[in-house]
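Reading a protein record of the kind used here takes only a little practice. The record below shows the convention in full.

——
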Amino acid sequence: MSKRDYYEILGVAKTASDEEIKKAYRKQALKFHPDKNPGDKSAEEKFKEVGEAYEALCDPQRRAAYDQYGHDAFDPRRRGGRGGGGFHDPFEVFREAFGGSGVEDIFEQFFGGGMRRDSSGSDRGANLRYDLELEFDEAANGCEKEITLTKPDTCDNCGGSGAETGATRKACPLCAGRGQVITARGIFSIAQTCPRCGGAGRVVDKPCRNCQGTGRAERTTRKTIRIPAGVDTGTKLRSAGDGEAGVRGGASGDLFVVLHVKPHALFHREGDDILYDLPISFVQATLGTELEVPSLSAKVLLRIPAGTQTGQVFRIKGKGIKNPQGYGWGDLHVRVTVEVPTHLNSAQKAKLQEFAALCDEKVHPLSQGFFEKAKRFFK
């Protein structure tokens, strides 16, 4: 069977320039590329034919020989030259245009190599986030909590390989083993991860029946998380390798546990310190007393001196929260509120009136000083 004229195959005139031949070749190669015509034998033959034509005409010496002798120029039986047929890479034009780089190398230069995977097609599993609620005491003192996770885990049937026992691997029929499919967009081509092999370039003839070749299966697991003392809302704990299992044997992702601490009925946290509001009676504040106050560990004895005022704060050192970075303990701050009697009987009122009659500025120095300063505003 006689071969078609190479110029006719590329759709150019015999006087076409090298650039016109290159552009025509690129257009025809993209049109008949196997990735765009899967299973089309006719397109595959035309793709080979286009490659053979371009190989003959892209080199000035070979083109001159073809112009003089036709197809006989490449028949080794007639002219000793090398054969021109075969499967020519349609993206050779890109390698020439970019100084020898293939289309994969060009994408790697511009996008940091993110398109490539390892030869097994394995992918690292995704990280997971788990929001965990804690009681105030659990966060302050530390504890252990068991959590339940439902996530993609390593398939028990294939051990993460994605293949049945005895299965073999072969080149992916969709991407011809490259791990990428290439789509033409005008004069540009876009390479994307092959959807058939996931970028591995190879597929197994017998995928695992349990995980359909991914190497992963959904599973519910329990995990014990150790909560260090002193954590607070927003603290993020990392459990390496406890995220989603990798695809086809890839490394597992990590688990990040984000903590949320419930408010306490008595204490308010301020950094490593805790604040406690203590109500005392009028008599206790006036005469002074000793009271037991709660802390995170045990009750603490607090001495209230005579004449204590509302809002006065007493510090109990080292009875706060442990610093999670190991810088000691915070303090307990006790803020006093003096309660004023609201329901008095006649005898109680009489005693207070008697007390008031005995009072002078020495008894209430703050209020007496205030009124002295305020006199000028009432003149």
Q: What stands out?
A: The chain has eleven helices and 15 strands. The domain at 125-160+212-262 is CATH 2.60.260.20 (HSP40/DNAj peptide-binding domain). The mean pLDDT is 80.
